[in-house]
Design goal:
With 278 residues, the chain is of the alpha/beta class. Helix content is 39%, strand content 13%. Helix 1 (29-42) runs parallel beside helix 2 and helix 3 (86-100) crosses helix 4 (119-132). The structure holds NADPH dihydro-nicotinamide-adenine-dinucleotide phosphate (NDP). NADPH dihydro-nicotinamide-adenine-dinucleotide phosphate is lined by residues 23-25, 48, 111, 142-143, 164, 190-196, 199, 214, 216, 231-236, 239, 242-243, 270.
């Protein structure tokens, strides 16, 4: 069992979250026990799942089988917009806990704003209720644009601990990240490798050759040096390990700037939160 070397980020409610976690989008429930088990064995202590992913049972099996105390793990799940009401979100939380075999999550997120209705406001009320009752470590949001954060702030004194947003070299989502920082919300990058699409860029390949590391490690290190939380996904044991070996090298300011320059207007790999209904 590999010890974890990952630094922690202190969230706005005092919770400490590993800066590198393991994403499990598109991992089947059958595969999740082995894949997540392999990640924990390699040193990951934070796992990012969601009810939508359909793999909470498998993630729960990996947690139950792991030779790591529960308090050393940081488990995140998310409620889907179809459950956005006060009672619906509470029910969804209980269902996720039951599938994961846990008594409490470390972080629970609203998965998308789905702003066509105001459902996310009622669902946020449910999450803050769970938080006030001590039933969850921290609560946050995902894919929230600045205007959705403003609406939450209008109705709630609890500031989301995290906003998990699409962010990678081709889609740097700078306005959202800046507004998160202004509000004291930690930015967590989903698809930090652009689902693999960012790895072949000549600039990334050039930096990787010079630093004697892989293109994935260059991109993940770029995220870390900018203070973001990241949750790369892989089902390949060697890549699972590689994506955690990020602490033996540093990118120069000029490398960071060169990757900053790869931002594109249309570089998104996922849906637009302004219109996506979930
Ligand atoms: P990532 O950017 O993490 O990329 C994953 C892909 O890159 C896989 O195809 C993987 O292949 C490949 N890959 C991983 N590591 C390497 C490597 N070292 N070298 C080469 N290829 C590599 O994409 P995801 O979309 O999975 O995002 C990560 C996590 O973010 C998700 O799993 C999920 O937890 C979260 N997420 C959240 C969303 C939200 O709306 N809140 C939306 C999307 C994702 P392989 O598996 O074959 O090794």
């Amino acid at each position: 069992m590999q010890q974890s070397t990952v630094p922690h980020v202190t969230l706005n409610n005092g919770s400490k979250m590993p800066q590198v976690g393991f994403g499990v989008f598109k991992v089947t429930d059958d595969d999740a026990a082995d894949v997540v088990g392999s990640a924990i064995e390699s040193g990951y202590r934070s796992i990012d799942t969601a009810s939508l992913y359909g793999n909470e049972h498998g993630v729960g099996r990996a947690i139950a089988n792991a030779d790591v105390p529960r308090e050393d793990l940081f488990i995140t799940s998310k409620v889907w917009p179809s459950e956005y009401s006060f009672d619906g979100a509470l029910r969804a939380y209980d269902e996720s806990l039951a599938k994961l075999g846990l008594e409490k999550l470390d972080l629970y997120l609203l998965h998308w704003p789905a702003p066509q209705t105001d459902g996310y406001l009622e669902a946020w009320r449910a999450l803050t209720h769970l938080s006030e009752q001590g039933k969850v470590g921290a609560v946050g949001v995902s894919n929230f644009l600045p205007e959705h954060l403003t609406r939450l702030a209008d109705v709630s004194d609890i500031v989301p601990a995290v906003n998990q947003i699409e962010l990678h070299p081709a889609f740097q989502n700078r306005t959202s990240a800046a507004v998160n920082a202004e509000r004291g919300i930690a930015t967590e990058a989903w698809s930090p490798l652009a689902q693999g699409g960012a790895l072949g860029h000549p600039k990334i390949v050039e930096i990787a050759a010079r630093k004697r590391c892989s293109p994935a490690q260059v991109i993940l290190r770029w995220h870390l040096q900018q203070g973001r939380i990241i949750i790369p996904k892989s089902q390949t044991p060697s890549r699972i390990r590689e994506n955690l070996e990020l602490f033996g090298f540093t990118l120069e300011a000029s490398d960071l700037a060169a990757i900053d320059a790869l931002d594109l207007a249309d570089g998104r790999v996922g849906p637009d939160p302004a219109t996506f209904a979930g």
